[in-house]
Amino acid sequence: MREQYERAIQACGLEFRSDGLWESYIKWEQEGKRLSRVTALYDRLLSTPTFGYMKNFQSFQEFVSANPPQRILTVDDFLTMRAEVKVLLKSDETPGAPPTDDVPPGEEPAAHEIPPTDEETRVIREKIMSSRRKMHKANANAVAARRTYEEGIKRPYFHVKPLERCQLKNWKEYLDFEIEQKDQDRIIILFERCLIACALYDEFWLRFVRYLESLTGDNAEKIRDVYSRACTVHHPKKPNLHLQWATFEEGQGNFDKAAEILENIDTVMPNLLQVAYRRINLERRRGDLDKSCVLYESYITNSKNRTIANNIAVKYARFLCKCKNDIDKAVKVLLKATEKDKDNPRLYLQLIDLGLQRNPVDTQEVVGYMDLFIEREHADLEQRVLFAQRKVEFLEDFSADIKQVLKAHEQFQKCIKQAKERKKSKNEDNKVDSSPPKKGKTSDTSSVPPPPTASSQSSYQYSSSASGPYQSQQQFQSGQYGSQSGYQQSYQQYPPPSDPNYANYQNWQYSQSGPQAYGPYNQWSSYNYY
Q1: Distances from the Cα of 163 to the Cα of 83, 167, 171, 253, 529, angstroms
Q2: Which CATH class is domain 270-355?
Q3: Mind telling me which SUPFAM superfamilies this protein's record contains (predicted)?
């Protein structure tokens, strides 16, 4: 029975309203006449901040007054305290009547069996209460510090209805306070209480995990238990919790469990891009590259969003190139993607990048990928200008035929001309739409812009707003031509037609191969669906 009580005290004896449990335990020990154990229980209770701390102290006073000290204290404690009292009262070493000759030698009563005098009993009881008053005072301060938070808890039980904002704030502040006190047992008990009322709020589960991780020692099983309860009971459809759990299991070297967690959330919440990437990269990290390929192909095939499918295809191509050293298959993956999205410049930039990875570089292959996009009539014209300039840059560096370079210059100038005409036509249309109705001869003509000069035409800059959606995507390319920062905002000054040797590539930067060329994936900012 005592073992069950101890289990109960360990589980919830530190809760603020656990007085009933303590009282039941004390009553059971009293009924068995185990008064020294009752005193030990009161010592634990009087140092525990509970709602009925005053009542508990009064109950202990009555207990001390109703029972003799030698029964409520252990033998060692009683003898120590009695010796101190005897010195204080200057009593004889052996109080009470001296033994008579009728008592046989060796049968004298033990010291703790000799009852103390009334004066000794009074002083011993006072000393017992004196030490407990100090405990009670410290406990009263602890109760006062927590009472505000406890009174702010209006719903300590679980309910499907959301908690009020003030309730959530109260729990957060209560946890902050308890963590500052650095009492590990009380902190864990408070977290468990909090997770009853706040079970539907994953932030509290994650905070509990973070706290357990900050502790010294091996707490893997405790952390695993928290994740298990959160993900399998309360939050079976919360991807963030499952991803955190999978990360923890992988960090523990449990790859199979991590894969199982990710597969489960992928089944319950399909089409989540973050889960797809985590599953793929988990297999890559544990060396199963074939499984990664299967997952890549499955997600590309089943993707309902063309943009997301292209993103996965680009990652798959880079994976094949860098991890499996299979550039030919990577090219096939991207060419297949261009069949479904023929005007997407990012796919062609990746093809160019793959061509540049070969050693030696196949000039015709790279130029062919550039021409595929430049010759697309429905592709964005400003992007075609960029690709034409990339082509000039590339041929200036690698081509052995000057005629091919000059032909690329001509193609570049043609694209520029088309872009200017498109821009001019668009400006005229906008001007007609926004022009005010005609007024009399006195209308102000100062607002009419002067005709463009030859110099202003040669330095005309085009906005690349049409290429905006691809600016952030281009940072993923390694070794791409034309990653000049100026072209992400506007075209650089176009070369005069009379200068056939114009290259202007000395200001360009070649992106280097490696992780730094790909930029951040930003795949954790929100849940993307494919």
Answers
A1: 59, 6, 11, 38, 30
A2: mainly alpha
A3: TPR-like (SSF48452)
**Max CA separation in the chain (angstroms):** 146
250 vs 282: CA distance, rounded Å: 8
pLDDT at 304: 87
Burial label, 140 (beta-carbon count in 10 A; 0-12, 13-18, 19+): middle
Going by C-beta distance under 8 Å and a sequence separation of 6 or more, which residues neighbour residue 15?
50, 189, 193
pTM of the predicted model, to two decimals? 0.70
- Please write the tens of the pLDDT for every residue from 275-287: 999 999 999 999 9
Nearest Cα to 63, choosing from 31, 85, 30, 32?
30
Buried b (16+ CB within 10 A) or exposed e, 64-78: beebebbebbeeeeb
| Chain position carrying tokens 């589960």 | 205
The top-level CATH class assigned to 154-268 is mainly alpha
Q: Which residues pair with 54 in a beta bridge?
A: none
Three-state secondary structure of 96-143? CCCCCCCCCCCCCCCHHHCCCCHHHHHHHHHHHHHHHHHHHHHHHHHH
Residues of the chain with pLDDT under 70: 90-116, 428-429, 431-530
Residue 7: CB atoms within 10 A of its CB come to 11
Return the C-alpha torsion angle 228, 233, 239, 240, nearest 10.
Answer: -60
